[in-house]
Amino acid sequence: MHFTTPILLLLLIFLPIIIMIGRPVRGPARKRETIALVLRVIIALCVILALAGVEIARASDQLAVVFLIDDSDSMSSEAKGLALD
Questions:
Q1: What is the rounded distance in angstroms from the CA atom of residue 72 to the CA atom of residue 22?
Q2: Cβ neighbours of 33 (radius 10 Å)
Q3: What is the pLDDT of residues 15-70, one digit of tens each?
Q4: CA–CA separation, 56 vs 6, rounded Å?
Q5: Which of 4, 40, 67, 81 is the most exposed place for a label (fewest CB within 10 A)?
Q6: Is residue 5 a contact partner of residue 52, using CB atoms and an 8 Å limit?
Q7: CA 8, CA 53: separation in Å to the nearest integer?
Q8: How many CB atoms neighbour CB 27 within 10 A?
Q9: CA–CA gap between residue 68 and residue 83 (Å, rounded)
């Protein structure tokens, strides 16, 4: 796992604050509040990881090449033929 901006991982410090603020109180809605808190923490974690630019690199021997050809009417038939070649 690699991060493009690892300094933004310092935002993980705020996760315990989110947990303390959203801590469920006792009562009949405790289960619902706990689920909501877990979802908030997961969303915050995903946002922080996205801001830090998480990259997962896998080694592979396979190579994929994709070619894109402009087939619009603005292209001349000669240019289309060159692109196909």
A1: 54
A2: 14
A3: 999 899 888 888 788 888 999 999 999 999 999 999 999 988 888 778 888 888 77
A4: 14
A5: 67
A6: yes
A7: 9
A8: 7
A9: 9
Name the pTM for this structure. Answer: 0.63
| H helix intervals, 1-85 | 15-21, 30-52, 77-84
Confidence of residue 71 (pLDDT cuts 50, 70, 90): confident
Position 10, amino acid:
L
Helix (H, G, I), strand (E, B) or coil at 2: strand
> Token pair of 9, please?
């991982």
Task: Report d(CA 9, CA 53) in Å as an integer.
Answer: 10
Task: Write down the residue that tokens 């706990």 correspond to.
Answer: 34
Question: CB–CB of 44/52 below 8 Å?
Answer: no
Number of H helices, E strands in the chain: 3, 2
